[in-house]
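Example record

One chain of 188 residues, shown exactly as stored in the release files.
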Amino acid sequence: MKYSLLFFFVIFFIGCATLDVYYDYDQEVNFSLIKKYDWMSMPEKTSENELTLKHIKLAVNRQLEAKGLIQTDKNPDMLIALHGGKEKKVDVQEWGYAYRDRDYYHIGPHPFGHVPYPYGKDTVDYRRGTDTYEYEVGTIIIDFVDARKKELIWRGVASGVMNPGMSYEDINKIIIRILEQYPPKEKK
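Predicted C-alpha cells for this chain:
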C-alpha cells in the first residue's frame, strides 16, 4: 500500500515547464570515485503502478549510464532509493470588475430617441465572484546512498502539479531535470 501511494502520483505530473526541481549533496563526497550503483529493495508492487515504476527506473538507468555509471548488484558504490507523495491543494481566486453605464442605454433606436434607464445615466455596475480549483501537487525524490556507510550522499527532488495521462517521455523529461546536476560540479 505504501509503495502504491508513493509512486502512483508520478503518472500525473504535467511536464517540465511547471516543475520545481532542486538537489543537495554531501560536500565531502568525491563523486568521481562512484562508478557502480544498484537499486535499494522496495516494498511489494501493485499492478496500478508497476509500469510507472519501470519507466522511472529505466529513465534513471539511462541517465546514469550516459554519465558513465554501471548498474550492478556486485559491490556497488551507491544505492538508489525512490520516494514520493502527493498533496491536495485548493486555489481560491476572487475576481471583480466594474463598469460605468454608457450612453447606449439612453440613446438608441427608440421612437422618441431616448430610453430612460431606471438607475440614472452615470450608474456604475460592480460584478464580483470567487472561483475555487482543486488540484494535487506530486513530489518525487531520488536519493543516492553510500553503499558502504549507508549515508545519504545526494538527493534530487521534483515537485509539480499532477495531471493524468503521463507517458514514458514525460517521465523521462522529469528524470533528466532531476539528474542534470549529478554529479555535482567540482569546486575550484
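Notes: Residues 106 and 115 are 5 Å apart (CA to CA).
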